Amino acid sequence: MLWFNLLTQDMQNQSWTKNKMMSSEHLTCGWLQKLLIVLVKLCLTFAGPSRPLNGTGCTAKSPASYILVFTGHWSPQAFPKQYPLFRPPAQWSKLIAVSHNRHFRLWEEGASASPGVQSFAELGLTVELMKAAKEARKKRSVGAMHRTAGIPNGIGHSSTEVIMQPRNPLLSLMVKMIPSPDWFVGVNSLNLCEGNQWKQEVSVDLKPYDAGTDSGFTFSSPNFPTSPQENITQITSQMPNHPANSFFYPRLKELPPIASVKITRQHGSPDRHNTLSNHILPNSISPQRFSVTPLDCEVSLWSSWGLCLGPCSTGGVRHRTRYIMLRPANAGIPCPELEEQAECMPHSCMKKRQ
């Protein structure tokens, strides 16, 4: 009987050990199966299209060549208020353009202007901007830098060839308004690539921006540094909300484009440098019809009333005057009367000397 009990116990132990081994093998197989699935997914992921390293989603296989044409629309018809006619007349500085990725910013609305942007927006100097771009180029966040000559009039064209690389598919540019305190037009981080394709043509209307480093209100304002420095903001027909502002047009919902840029892809070898002369309108660019902005007359406040003149017994007449601050243009509201008279009380009149 003791022998039978020992044999039964031994058989139960063997059965438990076998079940345990089978359970362990089952768990091991399940774990290996899950690991295999993960490895297969990873292989499929890396076997697919390569992910762009610049964070912009551009997977184009080759570079692209573009012709960039900048056009100024700064005319006395579109912007009649305080339009600069001399010393100096309305004109545009040289254009500076940079191709880059998301790790670089030439300028950005709502951000503080860098020393390079300040120097360019106030004085038209590109040294600091180009220096910053060259430093970023060492980190491969900037591709190429381009410049064009300035335009000696408010209306004109300048152009250059731009080579875009898949690693740096964003384009930023700036052009200073001359004369102005710290005003410029520009484009910030325009993406010329969609997936694995380069865009064929892009046109952008440009509006004026304030660099936030000078507090002048008019085109010819003297240098008056802003302290503390403010962020870059867009200038509109209502902001800055001050009658002295050269862009203050309360009748307009928005300012007409003061400039524009057109970027057209060239189908050919990007290594061939295609040069266009400044101020010559390419055949592919159609001249824009300039808008006409009405400018209302602006007059000063009335002066104080003068002394009454005339016989004191019957009352006298007093006068006050005002003067024209801004003459109307483009069918704007004409100027009102500049002189006014009214009767005054006898006690305040003054007899004329005989």
TrEMBL record:
Protein name: Spondin 2a, extracellular matrix protein
PROSITE patterns: SPONDIN (PS51020), TSP1 (PS50092)
InterPro entries xrefs: Spondin/Thrombospondin_T1, Spondin_N, Spondin_N_sf, TSP1_rpt, TSP1_rpt_sf, TSP1_spondin_dom
Zinc as UniProt keyword: no
UniProt key word Nucleus: no
Lineage of the organism: Eukaryota, Metazoa, Chordata, Craniata, Vertebrata
Residues covered by the Spondin domain: 54-243
Pfam families found in the cross-reference section: Spond_N (PF06468), TSP1_spondin (PF19028)
Taxonomy, superkingdom: Eukaryota
Molecular-function GO terms, alphabetical: metal ion binding
Compartments (UniProt record): Secreted, Extracellular space, Extracellular matrix
Gene that this sequence comes from: spon2a
GO cellular component: extracellular matrix
Swiss-Prot/TrEMBL GO biological process terms: cell adhesion
Chief location bin: secreted
Origin species: Nothobranchius furzeri
Keywords: Cell adhesion, Disulfide bond, Extracellular matrix, Glycoprotein, Metal-binding, Secreted, Signal
